[in-house]
C-alpha cells in the first residue's frame, strides 16, 4: 500500500469508505502561506456527493477539521493534518457483498493481495479516498495561486457526447455553472440528460476530463524520470477509474508530420519567448516552457451498476451480484475537482523541487 | 534533475549524448540471479542506431561493460553498474545550434532551467539516454523471466497506418522479424514504405507502441498512488517523445456503458479465477488481477527534421534552424525495446514491493 | 520539515504541543496483523506525563483513536491513522515567551527557518510529538513480536550516577517496577532521589538510556548507507534532547586492540552460528548477525529550568527568561518507551526491506 | 542493499574491492558550479592507500574519470558519474578465505543475507567503497565552499592516546602536515609511534575522528526526523568501522545540569545572534543555529589483524583464520577525508532542502 505521494510537498492519505474518518497529512508545505480555510471547504463541496440527481445520493457533509500545521491563520512549515469524518455510512448496504467479488471493482485484487478486505463501500479502494486528495489539493492551490498558477478542469466528453472545441474556444469558468461541469451550456444540457437516462437504466457511462494550467513559469519539471507530464500522468492514473492520459497533441499527434507538429519559437512584443503553436502542451523535454499546459484524462464507466451481474464469491463459486448502494452513474462531474487537486499537488511539488535545482 | 527511478529495484542513470559514456546503476536487484550478459547486449542491439535505412545512421556499437555487482555469473545483491561508451559522436554537427533553440526540442527548457546546456546532440535530453534504460531493463527482464513474466511490445501505428487487430489476433513474435517491429507482415511493409518516404521528404512521423505483459500474478501493484497502471504510465511518459498512455479499454472505454465494460469473474477448469472479458487490462484497483496486462503508448513525430524552421536564438533573435545530424524519421521501431525495458523495470519493482506487503 | 520516516514501514507524524491533536499515519504495515489496541494504550501510558513527581505535571490522558487501517481486529494493509487529542494545554503559560528565545530550545532556529512559530509549549519542536512515535512504535512492536523480536530499554545513567553493570547482569524486566525505569533497584532509588533534588533546585539533569534487542535473525540491515546501526543511530538522534549514540563496544571500543575486540565465530550445540564475545553489538557490516543488539543513547539535561536565564527576544534585545510551564527535570525515565518505539520502527522497516532483498 | 543516499543531492555508489571499478553517480547537483577536477583528485589522494608505513600498502593510484554531468568546466544539473578503476587487486591473497568467515568482518552477515558473496577483499563491504564517497564529497565541498561552509576533520584519539584540547585550542590546518592527521604535532608523533608499534605486533587499534563545520547559516536541518545531527549521525555510522557518534556536549553532557548546559543567546556587535557557549554543537531542535557544528566519531580497531584467530567456515566447521592481505593497523588517519566527505554530502543535501522549505 503506497498512500504517500510527492518528493517535497508530500502527502500521506488514509481512511476507508466506512471507517471513522478519512484524511491526509501534508508534509513539506512551506511556512508563511495564508491558510484559506473556507477555500478548502468549497473545494470539498465541489467533490461531495449529492450535488444533483446525477450524482450519488450518499449524504456526506464532508466537513473537515485541521489538526495541525496552522497557527494564526498561516502555515507553519510543519505537517498539516486534515481529517473528514465519515457520517453517512450505510454499511449494511454492503453486507450482501462481503463474500462476493463485484465485477471490475477492486474486491478480488485487494482480497488476493491483502488476504482480507474491508468490504464496506469498497474500503480503501473507494473513491471516497479522493476527498482527502481534494483537501490537500486545495492547500496546493493556495501555494500555486501565490505563484500565479491557475488549474482549471472541465468535462469534455460523456459517453459518445464529445465537446469538439479546444479550451481556447471555451469560457472555462462556465463549467461550474452546471451540474455536469461542462463549459458549453448546450453540451452540458445534453450530457446531463444522457447521464440521467443512463442512471434510470441502472447503468453507468464513462467520460473525459480536460484540464488547463496557466501561469506555470518555464523551468518546472524534473527530467529524465520525473518529467512534468510523467508526474501529471501518474497522478491522474492514480485516480479511481482512470484508463488513459494524454497531453498536448496526445494520441492524435501521432498522425502528424514533424513539420506540422513542431512549435516554432518566437519572441513576443514583451520580449517573452513564446511558441506559435502549442502542440507540445506547454512541456518540452519534461520541463514547462511557459505556454499553457493542457491534458485529457479518460474515465471508464463506474463499475457499480443497478443490474444483476455474473460473478464469483471468495470460494470461487458462481454468484449473482445485484447492484445496491448509492453510486454515480458517471464520475466525471465530480472528478473535475479531483483532477484539479492532483494537478495542483504535482505542480506544488515541482515548484519546490525547481527551487532546489538551483544554486 | 531526477535520474533516479524505483522504490526497491532502483535505477540511477547518467550520461549525455556526446559525453564520454552513458550508464546506469541498479541498486536493489536481489542476489542469486543468473546474469545473462549476452541477453543485455542483444537488448541493446534491438535499440541501437543504424539497424536499417529507416533509423538514424549514427554508428554506435553500444557495447556495454559491467563495473560491479556480478560475481561468478550471478548478481550479488550489490549495485550493478553498466556503462556504454559513446564512440561515434560527431559534435561538430551540432556547433551550428549551440546558440539556437530547435523547435519542439528541450533546448529552450533546459537552457532556462539549468542556465546552460550541453547542446551537442541534445546532451542529457537526447534519446541516447534510453540505452541505459534498456540495459537496466534487460536485468529486470532476467528477474521477471524467473517469475514467469514476459513483456512484449510492438508497433501498432505509424502516422495514419493503424493495425486494427487486437494483440490476441497477432503473432507477436513476428514483430522482431521486420525493421518496423510490427507483427503483421503486410502492415509492416506499408509502414516501412511510409517511414522511408517520410525520411526522403526530410520529415518525421509519429506512431504508437503497444505492449502486452503476461504471467503477472494477481497481487502486484501498490495503491492508492502507486497503482500498477499509474507506475506504468509514468514510466512510459518518461520516455522521450511520448504524448499519451492508455491501458485496457483506454480512451475508447469512455464511450461504453458499465454493463458493457465490466469484466465478469468466473472460475476456470483449473480452479483459477479469471475474467470473461478483459477491458480492465489486467489491472483492477491498481493491482494486477492475473489477466494479461496491455497498454498503448503514443509517440509524437521526432522534432528533428531535415527542413528549415523558424526559431530564435539564446538572445531571443529570429533564426532559421536547418536540419542536420543523424536522426530517426520515426522513433517507434527503436522505441519497442525501450517500452519493454521500462515496463520490466516497473514490474521488477512491483514484484519486490509486493513481497514486502506481506508478513 | 521532514516528519516522514521509513522506506517500507513508513510514518508520517503531525501535531503541535498545543494544537488540537497530534498523530501519525503508518503506511506500509502488512495486512493480517492482530491489532492489540490495549497494548498501544499501555505504551502511551508509559510515556505520558504525570507518572510521578519526577515527571512533568501536565495532565494528558493520552488516549488515542484509530481512524483507519483496522477492520475486524486486524490490520488491512492500508494506512493506519492514530490520533491523540491535546486536552491539558495551558497556552497562557507560554504567552510570556512568545517573543523570547529560550536558551537551548528550538525557538530561535524555528524562528529563523520558518519565519514564524507556534510558541505555545514549543509547538512542533515539543517532545509531545514523541507520543505519536510511541503509538506507531507499538504497532511496530506487534509486528516484531510475531517475528520473535523483543526490544527493551532502561535507564543506565542519570547525571554522574552510572549503572556499571552490563545488560546481561541485570533483570531488565525490573526497569518497569520503578519510576526511574532503572532495572537495579538500589541505583533506581539513588537516581530518583537525585532527580527529585535537582527538580527542587529548579534545575534539570541529563542521562543515558540503554537498549537491548533480542531475537533479530541474521540478515536484517541494508548496507552500505542504511546499515542497521546507522538507521538506529539516526532514529535515536531524531529524538528530542539526544546528543549521542553508540552501539556494541562504542566509544570505549576505540581503546582496544583488534585482537581484543574481534568476536570469534563458533558453532553452538544447536548448530547455530554464534560469536564468543559480542563487542560488535549484534551487527557486522551493517547487518544483524543474530546476536543481541545493544546500544546507548545520551540525553542532555532538559533546556527548561525554573531559574532566570539571560537571552534575547525576536528583536535581538536582551531579556531575562524565567522558567514557567510544567517540565521534566530529567527526561530519561519517560524516554525509555520512546527509545524502544524508535528501535521498533527501524526494525519493522528492516524486516520488510530484508524480505524484498531476496528473490 | 541500499547504496543510495540523500533526498535532493543524491548519491548512488557502486563497486567491489576487487571488481573492475568503483564509482558514484550524483543526481541533484545544481547546474553552474565550477567543477574543480584537481580538487577531487587531491581529496582522493588524502584517502588513498600507501600514504605512509602506517597505512595499507595496497597500491592504488585512485585516479578517477568523469563520465557525465560536466561541460565546459561547469556542472550541468545532470547526473555526475565518477569512476575509479581498481588496479592493484591481489585477489589471490583472498582465496584462502573464500570459505571462511573472518571474525568481526561482514563475511558471515553478507553470506547469510545475500546467499553468496564476493570474498575478494571484502567485496562490497570493503572500505574501498569509501573512495566513491570521497569523490562525491569533493563535489559537495565545491558547492559548500560557494556558500562559505568549511568542513575540517582531524584525528583526536588513537587507542588511549587522547587529545584533550578542544578544537578552538588547535590549529586544525596542521592536521594535514603529518601522517596521522592530528593537528597537535607532539601528539601526532606519539600516535604515529603507537600505530607503528601496533602494526609491528600484527595488531590493530581504534581511534576517534573529530570534525568541525564552520559557516553553516542558521536554518539548515529538517526536523523532526531528518534533524541535522540525526543525518550527520547516520552518515557517520554508515562509514565502515564506526561504533559511535556524538555532537556538541555528547555523552559527557549527560552529567551536566541544565543551568550549566544551556547556551545563553546574545546579540553581538555586528547585530548577529550568537550563543555565549556552544554545548549545543551548533544545532538546536535539529536545525543549525549559526554557531560552529562539531562532533566526534568512534572507529573500532580494524578487524583484519596479522595473527591467527579462531573462526568457522561456511559449513560451520572450526577453522583458523590467518591474517594476510594489506591492511591499515588504524583507520583514523585515512578516515579523516571520509568523515569530511560524508559531512559535506549531508550539508549539501540540507542546503538544497532548506531552499525548498521556503515559499
Give a verbal description of the structure:
The structure is a homotetramer of 359-residue chains. Helix content of chain A is 25%, strand content 21%. The first copy, chain A, is an alpha+beta fold and 359 residues long. In chain A, the strands form six sheets. In chain A, strands 1-2-3-7-4 form a five-stranded antiparallel beta sheet, covered by helices on one side. Chain A has one domain: Chorismate synthase AroC (Chorismate synthase, AroC fold). The first copy, chain A, has helices at 37-47, 107-114, 130-146, 185-200, 228-237, 258-261, 332-355; strands at residues 4-5, 10-14, 21-27, 64-66, 70-71, 74-75, 80-85, 150-158, 161-162, 207-214, 242-247, 265-267, 273-275, 283-284, 287-288, 293-299, 309-312, 318-321. Chains in contact: A-B, A-C, A-D, B-C, B-D, C-D. The interface between B and D is large, with 43 and 43 residues. Strand 11 of chain C pairs antiparallel with strand 11 of chain D, so a sheet runs across the interface.
Amino acid at each position: 500500500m503506497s498512500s504517500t505521494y510527492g518528493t517535497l510537498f508530500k502527502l500521506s492519505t488514509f481512511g476507508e469508505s466506512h471507517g471513522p474518518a478519512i484524511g491526509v497529512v501534508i508534509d513539506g508545505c512551506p511556512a508563511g502561506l495564508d491558510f484559506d480555510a473556507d477555500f478548502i471547504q468549497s473545494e470539498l463541496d465541489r467533490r461531495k456527493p449529492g450535488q444533483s440527481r446525477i450524482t450519488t445520493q450518499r449524504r456526506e457533509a464532508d466537513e473537515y477539521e485541521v489538526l495541525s500545521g496552522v497557527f494564526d491563520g498561516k502555515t507553519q512549515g510543519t505537517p498539516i493534518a486534515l481529517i473528514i469524518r465519515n457520517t453517512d455510512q450505510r454499511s449494511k448496504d454492503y453486507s450482501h457483498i462481503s463474500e462476493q467479488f463485484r465485477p471490475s471493482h477492486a474486491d478480488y485484487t485487494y482480497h488476493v493481495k491483502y488476504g482480507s478486505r474491508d468490504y464496506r463501500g469498497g474500503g480503501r479502494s473507494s473513491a471516497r479516498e479522493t476527498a482527502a486528495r481534494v483537501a490537500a489539493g486545495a492547500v496546493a492551490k493556495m501555494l500555486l495561486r501565490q505563484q500565479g498558477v491557475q488549474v482549471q478542469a472541465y468535462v469534455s466528453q460523456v459517453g459518445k457526447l464529445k465537446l469538439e472545441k479546444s479550451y481556447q474556444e471555451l469560457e472555462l469558468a462556465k463549467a461550474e455553472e452546471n451540474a455536469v461541469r461542462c463549459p458549453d451550456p448546450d453540451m452540458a444540457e445534453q450530457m446531463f440528460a444522457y447521464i440521467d437516462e443512463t442512471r434510470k437504466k441502472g447503468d453507468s457511462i464513462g467520460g473525459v476530463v480536460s484540464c488547463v494550467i496557466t501561469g506555470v513559469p518555464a523551468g518546472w519539471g524534473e527530467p529524465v524520470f520525473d518529467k512534468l507530464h510523467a508526474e501529471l500522468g501518474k497522478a491522474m492514473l492514480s485516480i479511481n477509474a482512470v484508463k488513459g492520459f494524454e497531453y498536448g497533441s496526445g494520441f492524435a499527434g501521432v498522425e502528424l508530420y514533424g513539420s506540422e507538429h513542431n512549435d516554432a519559437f518566437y519572441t513576443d512584443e514583451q520580449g517573452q519567448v513564446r511558441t506559435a503553436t502549442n502542440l507540445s502542451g506547454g512541456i518540452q523535454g519534461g520541463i514547462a516552457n511557459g505556454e499553457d499546459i493542457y491534458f485529457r484524462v479518460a474515465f471508464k464507466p463506474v463499475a457499480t451498476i443497478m443490474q444483476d451481474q455474473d460473478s464469483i464469491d471468495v470460494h470461487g463459486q458462481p454468484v449473482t451480484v445485484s447492484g445496491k448502494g448509492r453510486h454515480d452513474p458517471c464520475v466525471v462531474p465530480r472528478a473535475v475537482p479531483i483532477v484539479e487537486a492532483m494537478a495542483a499537488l504535482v505542480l506544488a511539488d515541482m515548484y519546490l523541487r525547481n527551487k532546489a535545482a538551483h544554486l
